[in-house]
Amino acid sequence: MKKKAIMKKAILLLLFAGAMFLFAGCGEKTPDENWFMENLPEEITTYTMKDQSYQSEVTSLEIEKRVIDEGFDTAYCKIVLDDENLSRTLYLILSASYYDQSWHLFSYQEYQEEEVTPLKGVSESFLMDELSACGYTGISNYREDLSGLSEKHWSADCDVSQEYTYLTLGGSLHFEAEFIDHQMEDAFPRSYGWITGTDASGLTRDWKIDGNWTGATDDYRLELSISSNGDGTFTWNGRCLFDTSDGREEAYEDGGVVENGMEYEEKLKDVEDMGWSWSFWCGYPYCTLTLTPDDVYISISGDTAEGVQRL
């Protein structure tokens, strides 16, 4: 009996020791990949684009190698994060320590440059807001090319058709953008963006100057006739009437051909800043016809004419 009691006591002690060992072992269990995913700092999973904050989802975390030493775990992790805008792969050394009966992540740093691929380009709404602010409202047939996203390149085109009193805008605009990675190498949260340029060389500006124009200063009254030749040129004939010292009315006359003021520029210009000036000698006086989209001005020998109108 005594021998059985001793055996029973020994078994109980062994069971108790085993339980304590298991308990202690569970408490110091090395963090696994799920633990690192759940304990990533928020500044790693968030980023900004155009001053707007976004949150990425950690879709995978792979421990490529690790060093464990007396309550310290140093894990080299490949982390993939995705959201609607970007796919990012980070390579971070995640360092954790065991204290107060649990593991705690206390530092991280990159051991390899991150890989970032944009999943979409510059938003259409952003471009339309920019164009609207510049006076472009007749936009149609917007189309974008996403084939270069893997190379961090994006492009788009749209058609333009707008009518003003003296101007017809037509043709197309072309947009190019390059994706910019984060600027500060070790800073989190990261910041990304697009640098966008606009090519306006496909935009036509057709100034509408056909008709009979008149305007007068204190010394002269201009009568100007302009008619289109259908080939981008205009034929003009002008008379500058003036009063002689003896009370008679005489006129300087001249005429010729002028090209339409269609302009092709690579740089996008605000519509309100568009204008075209055509200068000519009408016999003796030097005259200038200046147009903006909805206004017209005439000067004769440097003086601004009054009562300018197209008859």
Write up this protein.
With 311 residues, the chain is mainly beta. It has four domains: 30 residues; 88 residues, Nuclear Transport Factor 2, Chain: A (Roll); 82 residues, no CATH class; 103 residues. Helix content is 15%, strand content 55%. The protein is built from four helices and 21 strands. The strands form four sheets. Strands 1, 2, 7, 8, 9, 10, 11 and 12 form an eight-stranded mixed beta sheet that branches. It has a five-stranded antiparallel beta sheet with strand order 16-15-14-13-21, with no helix packed on it. A hairpin with a 4-residue loop joins β14 and β15. It is rod-shaped. The N terminus is likely disordered.
Question: How are the SSEs placed, and which strands pair?
Answer:
Layout: H1 2-27, H2 33-38, H3 42-45, E1 46-49, E2 52-55, E3 57-69, E4 72-82, E5 86-99, E6 102-118, H4 124-133, E7 139-145, E8 153-160, E9 162-163, E10 167-180, E11 190-199, E12 203-207, E13 211-216, E14 221-228, E15 233-243, E16 249-259, E17 276-281, E18 286-292, E19 295-300, E20 303-304, E21 306-310
Parallel strand pairs: 1-11
Antiparallel strand pairs: 1-2, 3-4, 4-5, 5-6, 7-8, 8-10, 9-10, 10-11, 10-12, 13-14, 13-21, 14-15, 15-16, 17-18, 18-19, 19-20
